[in-house]
Batch of 3 targets.
Target 1
Amino acid sequence: MFVLSFCRAERAEAALFGNTTGVVTTTLTAQPKVADRRELIVDAALRVLEAEGGRGLTHRAVDRHAGLPEGSTSNYFPTREALLTAAMLRIVEFDQPAVRQMEDLVPGGPYEPRRAAELVAEIIRGTLSPDRAWLAVARYELVLEARRRPQFRAAFNSVRREFLLLTEQLLPAAGCTQPREHAPELLALLDGLLVNQLFQPATVLSEAEMVDYLERFFVSC
């Protein structure tokens, strides 16, 4: 399911930016060093986004952060949209363990609302852990970029729709009888909780409070 989502997103990227990423598909086996450098560049782009925001994301800034010669990033990603899309798809890759974790829970369902809330809160806690919170910040910088850049927005929305579909498919395990109706609500709730925990220190919730919020959702689902 998740692999399907990732492949669709890569096709969306290829359609938007021509051969920017397609070349990687054809050279991964023959030139692993090329793939390694591409990954290094994209990871550096995410770090720049987290530290400096969208305004700080330039090809030269990524070159500096990656410790590569000037022009390296533009060689792999000639446009800003191509770089942003590659960064988004890298986050999708990083999300794979959490997605598998959710999928692994399905056979044990349906869960009571409180238990479903506890399981989702555990995933949120992992997203906000010290070694992953930076990635969540970079993700929301990409949200802002999608708001401003229609071409990138198309690729971003494609991935977002796949996660909406995934959420809809997972919700019955939480006892939800109307998953299509409630999947967008759950994504909105998760976005709100993450934004609050990341950027609103005055209103940070305890884990118990987060579970309470989530439980109220699952009771109404």
Target 2
Amino acid sequence: AFSGNQVVLVGKKANDLGKTDVYIDGSYVATIDQHSKSTQYQQAIFDSGTLTEENHKIDLVVTGTKRNRSKGVTVDIDAFDISSESSPKPYRVEGAITTGTWAWEYNDAATHGFSRYSDEIDASAKLWFFGSRITWIGKTARNMGKADVYIDDVYIATVDQYQWSKSTKYQQTIFDSGALSPGSHTIEIVVLHQKQKKSRGYFVDHDAFDITL
């Protein structure tokens, strides 16, 4: 999901790539073909055009089909470029790739009514993004624990989502990268299964990420 008035899908073109169906807000929009004789990186392979300035959802469905001359049906996605009328206002995204065991929590107080959490040591959530700053949005509560944060595979900080208050607080800033060089980056959250003594659990939660272009 994202907030803005335009989205551009960035990926590569090559001689072994296939086709993908694109849906915006649940409606089919286009089928894109990433086949090319020569390999080309960071290509704009889909442009939504102008949308209403609000929250939207983009879905990509691999078709498993290709041109006759393509050597494969693989699809490659690099990043999403989001535009907003109020740039450089951050846009909010989800969709981190997880490893290990993560459960879903459904609560209307989360960004889109749900978030993911884990207390499994070394469980991770990784997001590729294009921008100059990223903020991890999550919750704080009495049963939360600690996680390490990596930017571009380099350790940056250990964060703690515990808070003493009885009430759980949603959509909190858990980590802010500060200024990064504009371009492609990754952020990774790694569960430590560590906590403060007074915390009732080891859970780490990720709701969404705010990205500034």
Target 3
Amino acid sequence: VKNPTYPNSICGVVYQNKHWRNRCQFSFACDKIKDKVNDRKRWNTAQFVARETTEGRIWLKQVGSSTHYHATYVNPKFHDISLIKKDRDKYKFKRNLLIGSLVITAGYRGYLQYESENIYKSYGSNILEGDENHKQIEALDQLKPIMDGISIFTIFPILYYQARYMQMNRWLRAG
């Protein structure tokens, strides 16, 4: 509180960067969970110690003018690089599998269009033959929206897996 680098109140220091998730000194201050006092007696003791310390009536030699602390009971779990690579490769595989599916679907859609055009070009003057050609074109045209739907619904997972793949690559480069 006395250091000009930090806010000038205990609450200001505790809640500094509270709008940035996991970027504050005290995890409870930026975890987006509403703070609630469950033990009124301990809360009053904490307020008393804070007030007495900032007003200079309590001085703890062990703390002195410290501006930082390290909680020895905290043991953060860091990601294993090999697990990140494994996840990244899994996303790449799924993405590539879906891209292959999209290519096959688009290719089949193109084939349906090609066949419809060829049948249409082969129309002759025979009415019975023309009726049969028309039925074939209709049958092919009924499959086109199905292929279009499969293509549309395949694109979104491809984008998701690509984004995750790129995110994991950034983590690996940063690490």
